[in-house]
Amino acid sequence: MGDSSFSKPANSSFPGHGLENLVKLFAERAPRYDRSGNISTENLHDLYDAGFLVLALPKSAGGQEISLRTMIQIISQVAQGDPSTALILAMQYLQSGSFAHSSLWSDAVKQEFFESVRQEGALINALRVEPELGTPSRGGLPATTVTQQGNTWRLNGRKIFSTGSTALQWGLVWARTDETDPRVGSVLVPLDLRGVRIEKSWHQLGMRATGSHTIIFENVEIPERYLGLLATPADSENNPIAIASWHAIVVAALYDGIAQAARDWLVTFLHQRVPTNLGAPLATLPRFQILVGEIDALLFSNAALIEQTVRLLEEGTEIDTKAGLAKQVITENAITAVGKAVAAIGNPGLSQDNPLERHYRNVLCGRVHTPQGDSAFLAAGQKTLQV
């Protein structure tokens, strides 16, 4: 998934310099999309125009093969403006980067995908979670099946919590063959194929503008070149655990970004709020000074933990369990930080007229991403105890 160097890509066309203005624009739009529950296609178009959607692609394909550090930097910043957009972008980076370096797909298929991203801003995500199975990280076989009928392969099934659904052009669908000894793995699906439809099922408390609806596949005819699960011999790249550590820390950085935005809003609020009985800003009160210090301590801990995790990954260390622990601690710190802000200022913190209320709903969603808390602790404990 690209090199792990700290510096930005040498190519001077790297668009990071324009990110600050985009983040401000995304923050202005965020309340509207949160209320509507729609994906901000405006944000995605802006990211495409600014060159952000291609960054994880190989340089030979017009990308930058951005490092994990750069990916985290971008996602954290975008999350401070609109975390729903940031999550769609994070999945674009993780899945397009992984796809580019997988041996499951032919060069021709890769070039087809690369061209769609360059020319159209095509988005991709892995579609794995199912109604009956739940998250596949807890084990089990998918109910989504690929069946051969003569020379034709057909895909049937449904995937829930499909982040970016209505904006996606490609899906990496986790499925199995209907053979006695089923093969399990990825199917690359152009989501404009006949038989693909979206059921609007995403009605969540937070991260409402991710459009994480249900995608349904009904007798979708799949060209054989897209059937990665047929690749032989079985390849570790057929299992998304290969990018688990990157996924965990990128998602953690996203939710830390939400907490940073909440902290910045709180600081402004405390300076601007001047109760008549006090005659001075709330920022002058020791109570609130202590509060901000507590929040800064949590975010400082997050920064150190993100840095340590990235450094271990740069060194090539296998740290799936540690990355899971980092994701757990960082997201809980972020939730605690925003919760402290809400509790301290009372009704203004829960008013939809202020962004803090939205930040609090959004940051709570950090708990549902893989690995979830119990899984992260269990894996770490088993590894330490060697059981």
Automatic annotation (TrEMBL):
One of its GO terms (molecular function) is oxidoreductase activity, acting on the CH-CH group of donors. Residues 27-93 form the Acyl-CoA dehydrogenase/oxidase N-terminal domain. InterPro entries: Acyl-CoA_DH_C, Acyl-CoA_Oxase/DH_mid-dom, Acyl-CoA_Oxase/DH_mid-dom_sf, AcylCo_DH-like_C, AcylCoA_DH/ox_N, AcylCoA_DH/ox_N_sf, AcylCoA_DH/oxidase_NM_dom_sf, Mito_Isobutyryl-CoADH. Keywords: Flavoprotein, Oxidoreductase. PANTHER family: ISOBUTYRYL-COA DEHYDROGENASE (PTHR43831), ISOBUTYRYL-COA DEHYDROGENASE, MITOCHONDRIAL (PTHR43831:SF1). It comes from the Bacteria. This is Acyl-CoA dehydrogenase. Residues 250-370 form the Acyl-CoA dehydrogenase C-terminal domain. Residues 142-220 form the Acyl-CoA oxidase/dehydrogenase middle domain. It comes from Gluconobacter kanchanaburiensis NBRC 103587.
